[in-house]
User: Which sequence fits this backbone?
């Protein structure tokens, strides 16, 4: 016949498996449901996933109905129960802090009297803790199944947080040019489409597109090599950003081509912005031991409410080639 501990452990696992199996929940929602279920299963009123930042305890996820505890709230780590076990790989459980060896610990100032928690590691590094607590003593002692279950939960949450970090990195890679770290072509097109949608509901809204193509960049690659060319592109990106307004959006369209979205800008002001870019890029660049002088051709397209994002870029591209052909 199964023991009380075995039955309890099975109940814990079934509840949590039911939550992590739900595909309709985001990662944040799954963790919140875990905290809610864990609070009930452990008989505690508060559930928290914390991040430990030096000597600071930061609330990352919380389930605390009726308590004034919010995500992002910070506490002194040394005054929390978690300071007792944050350096350990074992769970800590306290049924009644006033009857424990921790009755003189600063954590007593929190007003919490029962606690179960364990440290969380994410991608091999200490992250914070998972903990459940209450402002009243626990009537029944924590079982071995509870401690084993805490370890399982911490492993699962650590893996989920690691997966979330990986998704964040992938999202950045998907939207960012790997060389210059500017927005890439797909994001630029998406942003222009958003501007077009805004214009469709507010005809007074205007914006312009600038297509920037570097002059003599091919000669740099041919004479000095692609590595120097890449370093030059990074400097170009930084210099372009230095002459942009905070509301403008700069992206690398490909190769030595850049696109700028000028929010709320008419053709007259777009021409002034283009002049700033030409002037900025006409100044020589120092790349390693090389003094490099290039320039830029800039084409402008003002939104007229017609066409797609790609058509607007193509229009600016044609305008840029007209300028370049006039030079050479």
Assistant:
């Amino acid at each position: 016949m199964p023991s009380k501990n075995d039955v309890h452990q099975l109940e814990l696992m079934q509840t949590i498996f039911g939550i992590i199996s739900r595909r309709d929940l985001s990662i944040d929602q799954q963790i919140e449901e875990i905290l809610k279920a864990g609070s009930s299963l452990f008989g505690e009123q508060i559930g928290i996933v914390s991040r430990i930042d030096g000597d600071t305890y930061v609330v990352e996820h919380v389930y605390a109905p009726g308590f004034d505890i919010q995500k992002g709230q910070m506490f002194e780590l040394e005054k929390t129960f978690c300071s007792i076990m944050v350096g350990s790989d074992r769970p800590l459980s306290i049924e009644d802090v006033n009857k424990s060896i921790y009755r003189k610990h600063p954590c007593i100032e929190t007003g919490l009297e029962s606690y179960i928690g364990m440290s969380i590691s994410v991608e091999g590094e200490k992250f914070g803790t998972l903990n459940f607590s209450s402002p009243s003593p626990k009537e029944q002692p924590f079982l071995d199944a509870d401690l084993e279950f805490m370890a399982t939960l911490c492993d699962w949450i650590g893996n989920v947080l690691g997966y979330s970090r990986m998704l964040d990195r992938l999202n950045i890679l998907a939207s960012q040019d790997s060389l210059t770290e500017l927005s890439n072509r797909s994001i630029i097109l998406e942003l222009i489409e958003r501007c077009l949608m805004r214009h469709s509901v507010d005809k007074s809204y205007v914006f312009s597109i600038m297509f920037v193509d570097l002059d003599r960049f091919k000669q740099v690659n041919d004479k000095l090599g692609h590595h120097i060319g890449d370093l030059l592109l990074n400097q170009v990106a930084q210099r372009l950003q230095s002459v942009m307004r905070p509301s403008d959006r700069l992206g690398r369209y490909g190769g030595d081509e850049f696109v700028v979205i000028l929010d709320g800008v008419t053709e007259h002001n777009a021409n002034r912005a283009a002049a700033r870019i030409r002037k900025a890029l006409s100044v020589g660049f120092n790349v390693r031991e090389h003094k490099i002088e290039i320039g830029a051709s800039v084409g402008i397209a003002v939104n007229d409410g017609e066409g797609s994002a790609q058509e607007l870029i193509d229009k600016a591209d044609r305008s840029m080639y007209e300028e370049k052909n006039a030079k050479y």
Summary: Residues 97 and 103 are 5 Å apart (CA to CA). The chain is about 45% helix and 25% strand.
